[in-house]
Amino acid sequence: MARVLATVLVLAGAALLAAAGGASAKQGVWSIITRPMFQSMLSHRGDSGCQGAFYTYDAFIEAASKFPGFGTTGDDQTRRRELAAFFGQTSHETTGGWPTAPGGQFAWGYCRVKEQNPTDPPYYGRGPIQLTHEYNYRQAGQALNLNLVGNPDLVSSDPVVAFKTAIWFWMTPQSPKPSCHAVMTGSWTPSADDRAAGRLPGYGVTTNIINGGMECGKGQSTDAAKDRVGYYKRYSDMLRVRYGDNIACKDQKPYGG
């Protein structure tokens, strides 16, 4: 009887270890973007002159949990690189930094919640990705089951919704553009047209997806594109991941251009 019990305990222990291993392999973004890491990456977001205290760690984690592939796809390096890219792009969109800023220009991500000089009322930029234009509010609202067209201020009044809109944009392809998620996780294969346009896998394509018409294909990096790369490098260094290839878009033809 003792031997049988011992065998049962060993088997049960093995099952628990296996389950633990499976759970470990499928850990969410919180295993990389811990609360202290989030605070360190975005340390000035609540400073005087910024609105970014709005962006909380708990809101980010809650929103990220609704998108199972976000920051959980691929090996550890791939996951870290995607998260560095996401925060790089969204930090540029919400930056409060300047060249001589305390802590450096790229320590001031997530300072802004609303677009400073609205160009498309009432559908101006809000949230981490600065969601803009009625069609984006409509598509995001449909995907998230929210009336964002009727109440666009949800994106600037509810931090979970704000992060959800940013992650939705990140995860969603809008033909002929791939999703930023697909680019950063290696699941996007450039077409012959993409290759002819210089659009090769790497962080630079995410800039092309987000604002290529203004920032890409200029033969030299624009100030905005440099800012995006600067944030990406900072977060990659903090998350201990290599930058990868093709991080700039200066030689990429914009989509539709």
Order of helices and strands: HHHHHHHHHHH
Do you know the CATH topology of the domain at 31-111 and 179-239?
A: Lysozyme
Low-confidence stretches: 1-25
Count all strands and give the number. 0
Any idea what the CATH architecture of the domain at 31-111 and 179-239 is?
A: Orthogonal Bundle
Shape descriptor reads globular
Strand content: under 5%
The secondary-structure class comes to: mainly alpha
End-to-end Cα distance: 76 Å
Radius of gyration: 20 Å
**How many separate helices?**
11
Under CATH at level 1, the class of the domain at 31-111 and 179-239 stands as: Mainly Alpha
Mean pLDDT: 91
**Largest β-sheet summary:** none
- Provide the helix percentage: 40-55%
Give your account of this protein's structure.
The chain has a domain at 31-111 and 179-239: Lysozyme (Orthogonal Bundle), CATH 1.10.530.10. It is mainly α and 257 residues long. The chain starts with a helix and ends in a 19-residue tail after the last helix. Mean pLDDT is 91; it is low at 1-25. The chain has eleven helices and no strands. This is chitinase. InterPro entries: Glyco_hydro_19, Glyco_hydro_19_cat, Lysozyme-like_dom_sf. Disulfide bonds join 50-111, 216-249.
Question: Keywords, please?
Answer:
11 helices, mainly alpha, globular
